[in-house]
Amino acid sequence: MRLALYQPDIPQNTGAMMRLAACLDVPLDIIEPCGFILDDRRLRRAGMDYIDHLDLTRHASWEKYVTGTKGGRLVLLTTRGSVPYLDFAFEAGDTLLMGSESAGVPDDVAEAADARVRIPMRPGLRSLNVALAAAMVLGEALRQTAPGGMGTDGMGMETGRD
Q1: pTM of the predicted protein model
Q2: 11 neighbors 40 (Cβ within 8 angstroms)
Q3: Residue (of 87, 73, 74, 89) closest to 118 by Cα position
Q4: What local confidence, expressed as pLDDT, does residue 51 receive?
């Protein structure tokens, strides 16, 4: 399982997703350009010292990402997704792709995805925060693919401390 961020533009959200990936031991791909400098102090504050434990790969562009990655399905989380994420069968080799906060992903990126999933929401509301959405879907994907996984005693009970 991997998490990929397509041209993120809010450093605090990116920092939160970096912390999420580090804590869940999920590699993170950042597809540039970003809307901020990656060593931004706000990003560091959101990611705290967890960033030092992150398996991070930076890609200079979408084209470099596509040519530099192999295997697994690309699963786009989008408000225009056809399948609710709770009804989707995740696989261990999947990469969850999150679009930028301001624009999502362009059509060519959406078309490259093997699947498009969504978080069902109350009608009339636009979207959730991208970091919160990533946590929800990544949590479900890991639940499906690695029951009793990282940081648990095999029965789903946390073994670590905050």
Answers
A1: 0.86
A2: yes
A3: 87
A4: 78
Distance of CA 57 to the CA centre of its chain: 13
Q: What parts of the chain have a pLDDT lower than 50?
A: 151-157, 159-162
Residue 70 Rama label (left phi>0; alpha psi -120 to 50; beta) = beta
